[in-house]
Write a structure and sequence with these properties.
Blueprint: H1 2-17, H2 20-47, H3 50-72, H4 77-108, H5 114-135, H6 143-172, H7 176-205, H8 211-222
Amino acid sequence: MSAHCCDHSHEHASAAAASPVYRRVLWIALAVNLAMFAVEIGAGVAAGSASLLADSLDFLGDSANYGISLFVLGMALHWRARAALLKATSMAAFGLWVAGTTIAHALSGTVPEAPIMGLIGALALAANLGVALLLYRWRDGDSNMRSVWICTRNDAIGNVAVLAAALGVFGSGSGWPDYLVAAIMSGLALVGAFQVARAAFAELRHPRAEGPHREAQPHAVGSL
């Protein structure tokens, strides 16, 4: 019974991934994330904000995420799982980079520009919420589709945190709210990487989960 349910869920996920609507959504998400990366990295440098710099690199990582997802659409499950592992690795690397940047800002005592943080954080939140709404329908697919959803969800959470950091910096005159939010974003990236990698390894351990490819032939024989 459990094996049949697993095969059915992967068959449904494969069909969803092949949807031209899903492909269009990924292209939209890719364009939005590239644009926001350019906006946020400039603002992060100008404002001296670790959380904005972290968020800008997150947008860049998600752009790569969506690009890889577009490339592997329609491929066999084991290829999609391997792509998910690659994305999990990039998410983990991003999390570690943010942790290092945050420590450097904390040691130097950088106090970011709160108004710039608030304005860009609000713009980034609007962009990520729009992408999340488009992707919500495909949040329960295979590890590759789940990685797309997890990254987008984490982005929206991170944007809310950046806004909170801007308020904290404005009210306290200290950079510690910015450092704290950047540390949270680092943790989100590392946890997300673990979730995606765990799902991908599970798919690679069970090759029979490639439902539509394996089941098509037996159904055809039975119909003769």
